[in-house]
Amino acid sequence: MTTKSSKMAVEQPREPLLGGHPALVAEAPAADRDGGFSWLTLLGFAFLTFNSAMAIYRSDGDKYAIAFVGFSYIDLVLLFICLRLFEKAEPNSTTRGNLKAAVWVLTTLLTVVFSYKVAAIMPVPVQVLVWAMAGATVLGGFYAFFVHRESKVWYHK
């Protein structure tokens, strides 16, 4: 009985980025817990890299298209690295707080860049809607990451 309770204390899941009840947070695969990468992660990065390379190849030398694809690729890679480091960081550490801020900045940059590209091909009323949605996403992310504090009590009916 004591080994089970001490084992459970060691294996408690880390706090997810946006919080949540521990029962709702899925346990990470063994490869992720050990610091390695799963084959699915490597496949995803290979797919992202291939698609980014193909988009640059098909851009016909358009500097703005190449910059957009390159920026998006680098931003996504940095975002995944920051999320990975966030999951490994000690709870309530300054590193974890800094990584949370980095994740918010990187997602905000992606939101702004993609909104700019979408709004550029839309009529003005839709542009306003696209930018309003982008603003709501950025502000909602800020609220969820830095302002909202989830209550510790869960009520069940």
Automatic annotation (TrEMBL):
Keywords: Membrane, Transmembrane, Transmembrane helix. InterPro entries: DUF6490. Coiled coil: none annotated. The chain crosses the membrane at residues 37-58, 64-86, 98-116, 128-147. This is Uncharacterized protein.
